[in-house]
């Protein structure tokens, strides 16, 4: 079977992108990164991808009259690159419902909380303000409503009494870098079944398929 062709959309640092690139370089990994695309020409992740020899492209949202025209340009670039699965990795633009539907069940996102808790921005600040004892991260299929969609993988991270938003973000990020490649591998192996608004793992041959990482 051929490798699943993946397109990664970024807006900034790209550390999750880097984790996906690294995973795809490991022997036997069933996916390859066909394209890294950024709406932000200044995204540091673009240089990281280029250094890794991955084709990159900038589609600056400021050059487009409306969201639909911007999304159409992204769609075209992804299709031209033969992308079969889109991974959002710190992509900070809202996508139109039309784009999301066109990539239904073929687009995944990582969010730094245990969804459905704490969707949206400034996640770690809100987790701390709520006094939550645990948080984490989630990889999920993308649906039109922000930070919703069938959950593929999650990791739990404890909140410590002396945490700041930054210290918590760093602890969560470590887990993001584990569950994003895991979710990608499961999809590329054809082992994720979507059933309505839930997804499940078809075959638990390997222990990590329980999808619970040890609490960091
Ligand atoms: C991550 O925390 C991710 O969960 C969120 O945006 C951040 C992106 O970081 N969606 P990076 O660009 O992958 O380093």
Summed up:
By secondary structure, this protein is an alpha/beta fold. It has helices at 15-24, 44-51, 67-80, 97-102, 123-130, 165-188; strands spanning 4-10, 31-38, 56-58, 85-88, 107-111, 134-141, 151-158, 192-195, 198-201.
Structure explained in plain terms:
By secondary structure, the protein is α/β, with parallel strands linked by helices. The protein has two domains: 1-103, Rossmann fold (3-Layer(aba) Sandwich); 110-216, Rossmann fold. The protein has six helices and nine strands. The strands form two sheets. Strands 3-2-1-4-5-6-7 form a seven-stranded mixed β-sheet, with helices on both faces. The protein has a two-stranded antiparallel ribbon with strand order 8-9. The model has no long low-confidence stretch (mean pLDDT 94). Residues 10, 12-17, 89-90, 110-112, 173, 176 line the site of 5-O-phosphono-beta-D-ribofuranosylamine.
């Amino acid at each position: 079977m051929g490798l699943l062709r993946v397109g990664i959309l970024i807006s900034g640092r790209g550390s999750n992108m880097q984790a996906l690139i690294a995973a795809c370089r490991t022997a036997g990994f069933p996916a390859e990164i066909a394209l890294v695309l950024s709406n932000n020409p200044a995204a540091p992740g673009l240089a990281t991808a280029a250094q890794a020899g991955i084709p990159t492209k900038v589609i600056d949202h400021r050059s487009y009259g409306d969201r639909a025209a911007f999304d159409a340009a992204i769609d075209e670039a992804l299709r031209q690159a033969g992308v079969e699965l889109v991974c959002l990795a710190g992509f900070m633009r809202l996508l139109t419902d039309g784009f999301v539907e066109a990539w239904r069940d073929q687009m995944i996102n990582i969010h730094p909380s245990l969804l459905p808790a704490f969707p949206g921005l400034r996640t770690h600040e809100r987790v701390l303000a709520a006094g939550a004892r645990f948080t984490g991260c989630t990889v999920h299929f993308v649906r039109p409503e922000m930070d919703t969609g069938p959950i593929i993988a999650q990791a739990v991270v404890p909140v410590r009494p002396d945490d700041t938003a930054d210290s918590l973000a760093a602890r969560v990020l470590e887990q993001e870098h584990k569950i994003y490649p895991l979710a990608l591998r499961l999809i590329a192996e054809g082992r994720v079944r979507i059933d309505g608004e839930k997804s499940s793992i078809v075959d638990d041959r390997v222990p990590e398929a329980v999808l619970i990482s040890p609490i960091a």
